[in-house]
Amino acid sequence: MMHIHRYYDVDIVNGPGTRCTLFVAGCEHQCRGCYNQSTWRLDSGVPFTLAMEEQLIADLKDRRIPRQGLSLSGGDPLHPHNVPHIRRLVKRVRRECPDKDIWLWTGYQLAELSAAQREVIAEIDVLIDGRFIEAEKDARLLWRGSRNQKIWYLRQPQGEHTDQHSAASDAQQGYPQRASRECPVQHQ
Ligand code: SF4
């Protein structure tokens, strides 16, 4: 069973557009400067139940408040314990909500992901990777807290895998400017 800390059915802060956002429990990175250590433990928060999952899917399909997509954050959605649960969830979202995009924040780096973690990445649109490094903190960054973190647009039309973007290039791609974050996994 995966635990979660928060779920926002309507969120305009964690990713582009109006979104559903899920903050999961469990993180093993122990970044210096982490200001939400309460998310580290896998058994913190509350169990993510099937009823919660059904609600999330219903929210993504809700036409009264159109959602652009789903944001997965934490904690770390790619913590090994969370991977099978997140993989199942993203596959379901792909299947049942094919017009929605999926963004995922992790403290791991793309290059170091395990085969199981990569199965999750294969289903998502955008990955923001890397631990939060206090010495590289930069408030001007879009979607990230520190300069070492990168935004990977994994499903660009040309099939390009794009490296780190400046706020300017993000704006050129039509992604609105947002406040930056302390952590790749978007604490509240
Ligand atoms: S990845 Fe985020 S939650 Fe995990 S230790 Fe680092 S700052 Fe904290």
From TrEMBL:
It comes from the Bacteria. It catalyses: glycyl-[protein] + reduced [flavodoxin] + S-adenosyl-L-methionine = glycin-2-yl radical-[protein] + semiquinone [flavodoxin] + 5'-deoxyadenosine + L-methionine + H(+). It is an enzyme of class 1 (oxidoreductase). Residues 158-188 are annotated as: Disordered. Its EC number is 1.97.1.-. Its cofactor is [4Fe-4S] cluster. It holds the Pfam family Fer4_12. InterPro entries: Aldolase_TIM, NrdG, Organic_radical-activating, Radical_activat_CS, rSAM, rSAM_sf. The keyword S-adenosyl-L-methionine applies. SUPFAM superfamilies: Radical SAM enzymes. One of its GO terms (molecular function) is metal ion binding. Residues 165-175 have a biased composition (Polar residues). Keywords: 4Fe-4S, Iron, Iron-sulfur, Metal-binding, Oxidoreductase, S-adenosyl-L-methionine. The keyword Transferase does not apply. NCBIfam families: NrdG, PRK11121.1. Belongs to the organic radical-activating enzymes family. PANTHER family: ANAEROBIC RIBONUCLEOSIDE-TRIPHOSPHATE REDUCTASE-ACTIVATING PROTEIN, PYRUVATE FORMATE-LYASE-ACTIVATING ENZYME. Activation of anaerobic ribonucleoside-triphosphate reductase under anaerobic conditions by generation of an organic free radical, using S-adenosylmethionine and reduced flavodoxin as cosubstrates to produce 5'-deoxy-adenosine. This is Anaerobic ribonucleoside-triphosphate reductase-activating protein. It comes from Pantoea phytobeneficialis. The lineage of its organism: Bacteria, Pseudomonadati, Pseudomonadota, Gammaproteobacteria, Enterobacterales. The gene is nrdG.
